[in-house]
Amino acid sequence: MFWDEKTETLPKKDLEELQLKRLKKTVAQVQNVEFYRRLLREAQVRPEDIRTLADIEKIPFTRKQDLRDGYPFGFFAVPIHKVVRIHTTSGTTGKPTVVGYTRKDLETWADLIARNMTMVGLTDRDIFQNMVNYGMFTGGLGFHYGAEKIGMTVIPSATGNTRRQIEMIQDFGVTAIHCTPSYGMHLAEVAEETGAHLESLTTGLFGAEPWSDAMRAELEKKLGVTAFDSYGLSELFGPGVAFECPERDGLHIWHDCYLVEIIDPRTGETLGDGERGELVVTPLVKEAMPLLRYRTGDITMRFEDECLCGRAKKIARITGRSDDMLVIRGINVFPSQIEHVLLRIPEVGNHFMVYVDRVNHLDEMTIDVEINRDYFSGELQDLARIQKKVVKELRDTLELRTTVKLVEPGSLPRFEGKAKRVIDRRGEM
Ligand code: DLL
After folding, report:
1. 330 plus 315 within the same structural domain
2. Which residue has the CA at smallest separation from atom 21 of ligand 1?
3. Residue 300 clears pLDDT 90, i.e. is over it
4. 429 domain-assigned
């Protein structure tokens, strides 16, 4: 069950040689990006100073904020006419982060997805329903082209209309599905409610948001699939960065394409195998948008042992974030975005509390906001108007439906130190 057995099982020494060669090339490539020319100059690192893999520690980190500051194309290392597609990340204040791909990048990305899907046993005999957003989100097109590359029969059903999704699974004899774990649970429930049987399904690929082993057990029981965890982020192509193999004990990250470090998010100090910290990745084969030591914000650790499947070392499932980013139904949300929206609406104050719950296995976000008496007539219908306005403004910016509760001025907690405006009650399920 290998797509590219030689690469996937490279002996350690060969892998490190390849990584070093590609790292040097990447450091040369980023010279086309003004941000990196300055970063390396200020750190006094010349391309020829990178002689071993450990020399990477001489290079400063790149953060999400740096990419935002480069909006829209500031991080592209090739002329725009070489960029054949762009995607954007969700979840930023104001403008999103733009990521670009050359033709070769798209091929590499599809190849990585093909590796993952083959690793879990999928072949050209499978019928694959891709139930994620096909727009600017990388999950849709990313999986689509990888699945086609294997020769699977791809159904680009995208999101929404769950009953229709169920009908398609039944009518087309779908064997494998891809969606967020929360949508998977919703699908299972609608199938249960309508008495629909999904016996053709064997495999479920779930990712784009954190999910627990308890949720895995539920998904497997309700959908009759073997469920695999899929991890990725737009800045590193999108999905396909790391994926579970049939052992389902940690995720294989593709070391020939991604140089992995784990750091202490507070001190930036490098951590060893088995120590939990923030995942920092230097992509080694990206053309349009190479990055150096990118801080993903995701908390994991590197495994100490090799895997029985023969591929190189794994990382643990993502357990959280080092920043305040929330992942709600696969969409990234920062509390600062909510604040930004509320500040624009005079009828409400800027004190708010966010509650995140999992209701019927779907993430729900409720925001309590204080009303501004100066703009409030006291009439009930005025309250409804303000509430509707806040919901709409939040939806326009976050691309997410929220529940808004208007509360009395002064009733929400005030903070002396670091504000804690988010209460995530999703717990284990
Ligand atoms: O979510 C790419 C993707 C699409 C991955 C489909 C898997 C499947 P972004 O929208 O840029 O890209 O969000 C990336 O989502 O930094 C994590 O915090 C979170 N995330 C993604 N996959 C997982 C996972 C896509 N399996 C951000 N477990 C990442 C936990 C995940 N968190």
Report:
1. no
2. 208
3. yes
4. no
Contacts 24+ apart (CB under 8 A), 54-61: 56/23, 56/259, 56/261, 56/282, 56/292, 56/293, 57/270, 59/27, 59/292, 59/293, 60/293, 61/268, 61/280, 61/293, 61/294, 61/295
pLDDT tens by residue, 64-120: 999 999 999 999 999 999 999 999 987 655 678 999 999 999 999 999 999 999 999
Ligand 1 atom closest to the CA of 137, numbered from 1: 10
For ligand 1, atom 31, the nearest C-alpha belongs to 209
Which protein residues are within 6 Å of ligand 1, measured from CB?
Answer: 89-90, 138-139, 207-210, 229-234, 238-239, 296-298, 318, 321, 327, 332
Q: Do 331 and 300 fall into the same domain?
A: no
CA 103, 106, 108, 111 torsion-angle sign: negative
Return the CATH number at 376. Answer: 3.30.300.30
- pLDDT, tens digit, 9 for 90 and up, residues 218-247: 899 999 999 999 999 999 999 999 999 999
- Could you say which DSSP state residue 97 is in? -
Residue 82 lies in a domain: yes
Phi, psi at residue 100, to the nearest 5°?
A: -125, 155
Whether the pLDDT of residue 429 is over 60: the answer is no
DSSP tag of 61 = P
The count of structural domains within the chain is 2
Token representation of residue 313: 């070392």
Please identify, among 295, 321, 347, the residue that sits at the C-terminal boundary of a domain: 321
User: Lowest-pLDDT range, 21-30, 148-157, 315-324?
Assistant: 315-324
Tens digits of per-residue pLDDT, 37-64? 999 999 999 999 999 999 999 999 999 9
Q: Which domain holds residue 388?
A: 326-424
